[in-house]
Design brief:
The complex is a heterodimer of chains A (388) and B (346).
Chain A lengths: L1 H6 L1 H41 L30 H34 L4 H15 L3 H15 L14 E3 L2 E4 L1 E5 L3 H23 L4 H22 L2 E5 L2 E3 L2 E3 L2 E3 L1 H28 L2 H9 L4 H31 L11 H12 L2 H30 L5
Antiparallel strand pairs in A: 1-2, 2-7, 3-4, 5-6
Helix pairs in contact in A: 3-4, 3-8, 3-11, 4-8, 5-8, 6-7, 8-10, 9-10, 10-12, 11-12
Chain B lengths: L4 H17 L10 H9 L2 E5 L8 E2 L5 E2 L1 H14 L5 E5 L4 H7 L14 H4 L3 E3 L4 E3 L1 E6 L14 E5 L4 H11 L5 E5 L2 H9 L5 E5 H11 L6 E5 L5 E3 L2 E3 L3 H20 L6 H4 L5 H6 L6 H5 L5 H8 L3 H8 L29
Parallel strand pairs in B: 1-4, 8-9, 8-10
Antiparallel strand pairs in B: 2-3, 5-13, 6-12, 7-10, 7-11
The chains are: A mainly alpha (388), B alpha/beta (346).
């Protein structure tokens, strides 16, 4: 009180402005709350009047709609809630696949565009221009029609190597077949064999830890061989075989899955490639010169000097690109791949619970995007310059 | 028609949200739809995305078909002109929401009457076509019943009740049918004709339409039933407006009763001089029916004059005078052994 009185007119004006600001903020907040309440009340009244029950009870009822392919087991008599989980698993599988493959391909594209060979750089630039300047939905339809119209029908399937068939029903590959003891034993055995392979190949890439990795591989092989010898495991390939109208057995990569993965991987890899190229070019030229003058080769300079610095520029835009990939998977239904938005659409048409299903869809994508952003932010902090 | 799905989603969600959130009128009980339609000057009907015979624009952009004529009959009764009807093409997924939220006043769109749908804020009026779920397959497949589809890939559209039927027969008969599902009818049919699927499953009526209009050589394809159950394809209205519900029911009934009474598009004018009290009451020469429904007395006369009786509509759109050549079968009048029951206009 004293300070205000002694502060004179200037202080008084400042406090009035502050008052005004506070009042304005309270008013805006009140208006927003009132608007939300009004919308909620109207929605409830309209839904009630149209005889549409509100609530989440429908999730525990069976949906009776088919899902054409899924990672998780599904039958049409499962609940709608489970159908959403099945759709989510399909969305996540597709997202992870696209993120991984488009990063690898994008990196290759970035290097190709920086190549000193005119043909390589020109081709890469052309690919980027074509893919970046056409709508992704058109690309998906293009790949889908290429697969279904370009490949022969199932009775004339291409058969490039034993056990592999290409037709407009998709790609059929031999499946790994392990016969013998109980499922857990088979899984352990498979884990050991894969671990041994992984450790073996890692020993080539990491010369510094070659010895320990080779020991690990040998140990895993030994245990796997022991299991094989004692419990009588048999491992083989189960090739697909044509029976009546379709291939039975083996692994099937459906044209829907293939078109979706191919289309979105190519589309995203172009953006990822440009982000990586931008990151590499943002590193000052002096760093290259420093690396080369130390006697490093170009690839060593890239790997040891340039990329660690480029990551700082690359990670933030890459985060939003990855989130875009996840959101783009909702385009799946144009080529018939059953993602979570397909489940939502089917559930809406079966139950009419449009508001709830759209809320689920939004919540799921919000959650995935926030999780992806959180993960990438952690990575970003790891690569960020230590603050001084 | 393959509009970007995201865009369609956005449009659907937005209209659903807008409709759901729009100010709530206390007076949407009886009569609101009739008043709104009269004020607008046209009826909006949900239509298929192009099923020749049931609902599709012809080469001049004029909508034709059995479902379209069901809508035009209501327009003729309510607004005096069968052309005061607009058609909104809807996918299988969209149609229920479009009716619930008021985007369309009437949904005559090969829409199978089921309990869950009926309880979702809509009312089914009277079946305008009795159908069964069928398969369309190339003759070269050698299948003539679902048993021949073991391990087969079958194309279908999402949001259709046929999906549940397919799933059921696949499970009970251990057929391991592999569904391939699209969200719009064009993609579904294109995938079938590209050989992505061995068969196409949907209502047999739509299959007849597909075979007649899209197959390179229709006689290379066979249609066979998936089950022996009958499906009632029924125009639906929004719940809560009983007067509109009545008007739609009786507009369709008028076409059945006219056939029963022998009133046709050609003879409707001279039938006004008939001595038969049923005919006189039907055509509004003796008043009463119009007032009861809240319409003028000539409403049924206009339906027959402008659209025709059910037999004429059937023959013209899907029957012997159409490329589909569907047998009248279950859709004959009850007196001829069918399921169509004309009700008394008294």
């Amino acid at each position: 009180m004293n300070t205000r009185r002694t502060g004179g007119p200037a202080a008084l004006r400042w406090s009035r402005a502050k008052w005004r600001n506070a009042l304005l903020q309270v008013l805006i907040l009140a208006a927003a709350i009132a608007g939300a309440l009004w919308l909620a009340r109207n929605t409830a009244a309209n839904l009630d009047e149209r005889g549409i029950a509100v609530g989440w009870g429908f999730l525990s009822r069976p949906g009776y709609f088919p899902i054409s392919q899924s990672v998780l087991p599904y039958s049409a008599s499962d609940t709608i809630g489970w159908a959403f989980a099945v759709g989510l698993a399909n969305t996540l599988l597709m997202s992870v696949l696209i993120v991984v493959l488009s990063t690898v391909l994008g990196f290759a594209l970035a290097l190709a565009r920086r190549s000193s060979k005119v043909l390589v750089a020109g081709l890469a630039a052309a690919v980027v221009d074509v893919l970046r300047n056409t709508p992704v939905i058109v690309q998906l339809l293009f790949w889908y029609s290429l697969v279904t119209l370009g490949l022969p029908d199932i009775h004339r399937a291409l058969h490039p190597i034993a056990g592999v068939f290409l037709s407009n029903r998709g790609v059929y590959l031999p499946a790994l077949k392990i016969d013998g003891p109980a499922v857990p034993v088979r899984l352990v055995w498979l884990g050991l064999a894969a671990g041994a392979l992984l450790a073996g190949s890692a020993s080539i890439l990491r010369p510094g830890r070659r010895r320990i990795l080779l020991y690990a591989a040998a140990l895993a092989w030994a245990i796997a061989a022991l299991i094989w010898a004692t419990v009588g495991l048999s491992v083989g390939l189960r090739p697909p075989r044509l029976e009546h109208v379709n291939f039975i057995g083996g692994l099937q990569l459906s044209p829907e899955f293939a078109a979706m993965a191919l289309g979105l991987v190519l589309y995203s890899s172009v953006y990822v490639g440009e982000i990586i190229r931008g990151g590499i070019e943002a590193v000052p030229k002096g760093q290259w010169e420093a690396g080369l003058s130390l006697g490093l080769t170009r690839s060593q300079t890239l790997r040891l000097l340039i990329l660690p610095q480029a990551f700082r520029t690359i990670i933030p835009p890459l985060t939003s690109q990855y989130i875009n990939v996840v959101k783009n998977t909702t385009l799946a239904l144009v080529v018939g791949y059953p993602d979570i938005s397909f489940v939502a659409a089917s559930a809406i048409s079966e139950t009419g619970q449009a508001v709830e299903c759209v809320v689920i869809l939004m919540a799921v994508f919000l959650l995935i995007s926030l999780l992806a952003a959180a993960g990438m932010n952690t990575l970003n902090r790891k690569f960020a310059l230590p603050s001084r | 028609m393959t509009r970007p799905r995201r865009l369609r989603w956005a449009a659907l969600t937005l209209t659903a949200a807008l409709a759901a959130c729009s100010p709530h009128h206390a007076s949407t009980g009886g009569g609101a739809t009739l008043a709104a339609v009269r004020r607008q000057g046209y009826i909006t009907c949900g239509a298929s995305q192009g099923t020749v015979g049931f609902g599709a624009p012809d080469k001049n952009g004029y909508w034709r078909g059995l479902d379209v004529d069901t809508c035009r009959a209501v327009a003729a009764a309510v607004l005096g002109d069968k052309n005061k009807a607009r058609f909104l093409p809807l996918s299988g997924d969209q149609r229920l929401v479009a009716l619930q939220t008021g985007q369309v006043d009437l949904l005559p769109r090969t829409f199978t009457w089921t309990l869950t749908r009926d309880a979702s804020g809509i009312n089914f009026t009277i079946p305008n076509y009795y159908d069964y779920v069928g398969f369309l397959a190339p003759k070269s497949l050698g299948a003539s019943s679902p048993k021949g589809l073991k391990d087969a890939s079958v194309c279908l559209q999402s949001g259709e009740s046929t999906a549940a039927v397919l799933e059921r027969i696949s499970e009970t008969d251990h057929l391991h049918i592999r569904p391939v599902i699209f969200d719009n009818v064009q993609a579904t049919r294109a995938a079938f004709f590209a050989g992505r699927c061995d068969a196409l499953v949907t209502d047999a009526s739509a299959l007849a339409s597909v075979r007649a209009t899209l197959a390179k050589n229709p006689s290379d394809y066979v249609i066979f039933p998936a089950t022996d159950e009958v499906e009632a394809l029924t125009p639906a209205v929004r719940q809560g407006d009983d007067q509109w519900f009545d008007i739609v029911k009786w507009s369709f009934e008028a076409m059945l009763t006219a056939e029963e009474l022998g009133i046709t598009q050609a003879n409707v004018d001279e039938m006004r001089n008939s001595k038969d009290p049923r005919v006189r009451r039907f055509l509004g020469v003796d008043p009463g029916n119009g007032k009861a429904l809240g319409l003028d007395e000539a409403w049924a006369y206009r339906i027959i004059k402008q659209v025709g009786n059910y037999g004429e509509v059937f023959d013209r759109d899907v029957g012997k005078d159409s490329p589909l050549k569907i047998d009248r079968g279950l859709n004959r009048l009850q007196r001829d052994g069918g399921l169509m029951v004309p009700l008394p206009f008294e």
